[in-house]
Predict the 3D structure of the following.
Amino acid sequence: MSAPEDFSRRIEEAIKSPKNLGELEGADAVGTVGNADCGDMLRMWIKFKEENGKRVIDRATFQTFGCETAIAVASVATELIAGKTAEEALAMGGSELSAPLGPLPPVKIHCAQLVEGALRSALSPANIPPSNQAVAPTLLQQFQEQSPKKIVLEPSK
């Protein structure tokens, strides 16, 4: 099976029955991130519990306006972070959060960055990532950073 076929199969399996889809009542943390360029938006809810004297992630859920890859990455990421402390989850980058799906094609890397951004937004909104990887800004931040575009209509001759 070729790499693109294997990737497509893994994505298809992940979206057939996405895990942890939907709002989480009583969440301890909520993070939202969006990408104005492609229109994707993802919100992640996180609930903690005490385990062996540590505060760990009990459950994480998500909702997204995004493509199938964004759904698949969010689904596997919510499974991966369960049982981790906030610090352990924050140490995970997009490639780790999407690892169960295999390497993402270059055009889909933004989906993993979207999930990573929502996780960081939920767990530590003011946190600067420990790596040099860019974290997707929130939808509001992207709109605030954009300068208004002027459209000049010329009369037809």
